[in-house]
Automatic annotation (TrEMBL):
InterPro entries associated with the record: BMP_lipoprotein, Peripla_BP_I, PnrA-like
Renumbered residue ranges of the record's region Disordered: 36-62, 104-124
Domain ABC transporter substrate-binding protein PnrA-like: 76-355
Membrane topology of the entry: Lipid-anchor
Gene (UniProt): bmpA
Name of the protein in its database record: BMP family ABC transporter substrate-binding protein
Keywords, in A-Z order: Cell membrane, Lipoprotein, Membrane, Signal
Amino acid sequence: MRRRMRGVAVLAIALTGTLSLVGCAKDTGGNNASGTGGKGCQLAPKPPAAPAATSSSNAGPKVDASTLRIGLAYDIGGRGDASFNDAAAAGLDQAIAQLGVKKENTKELTASPSESEDAKQSRLRQLAGEGYNPVVTIGFAYADALAAVAPQFPNTRFAIVDGSASAPNVTPLGFAEQEGSFLAGVIAAYKSRSCVVGFVGGVNVPLIQKFQAGFEQGAKTAAPGIKVISQYISTAGDNTGFQDPTRGNVIAKGEISSGADVIYHAAGASGKGVFDAAKESGVKAIGVDSDQYNQPTVAQDKDVIISSALKRVDLAVFDYIRAVAANDLGSLPKVFDLKVDGVGYATSGGKIDDIRDVLEGYKAEIVQGRITVKDKLTG
């Protein structure tokens, strides 16, 4: 059921009791020359320089996907959310442009807020029943519906982003979100002048906790004395937290009033409210999933978006379609992580060009196994 709070005042009161403060060390001055005002955090020593990049193209032989009829079942928000769903849409668009998929042979359907499991199952049955194969489901919310529907269509290939279903015709497409979020935490630490940063999650579920865990670890690794304020828009079972910019705005303002001057969100379309709050308050923001600096629906806020933690759902969707067309699902990685550029960070706008060497150094430490990024919250 959709749960709404009555008014900003009620939500603000709730926030005071639920803010999570991590690493409440006092600002020690620091050597951060980025940003405006304040001294910034005392930064840890920079990681070793990353090794020179080498070409590792995995393009493989040319694949013709022109005969495929592809169905996409989006999570709430759908195409146009400037985040998670738009990343999936970009993968489909790339398959149309590069693999010969015909636009008229695709169908895109979108979930509604607070819909029932029956509605999700009906959507998947519709796509499979109309002959779309493969059918790609976007988001963990489809896991139960897919477990019920996939066995009913054994000759249809299904994929699910961020979930799994125990059926032989289902391919899970999973990500190391915590690794990209770690780099977002490093960015926040280097760009903060107050040595206080914030995280806004959409729904308090294990998937989004991976973003929080990585962000907090990255910020604390780069600046051990930093304070991280973390808050969620809705609780588990209430997925409206991914599509409520108003509540995202209020939560971000609460974190800003507590001193945060860089806010990172993992909240889907609710991130628009986070960006608006950052713009109004004159602080910085970090987007998620897509390169949000370049998303038209948040264009008025782009000047405060210093980066985005990329979750390459576009890459996963494109690679899956390509693998289906080539009849080679075994070529897909077990997880889309930093090693395969399945996660990363955006550089649009040039606002983090001065710390690219630092970020590449930390990335190399993770890829080479010298830093293990936690995917669960501790403590």
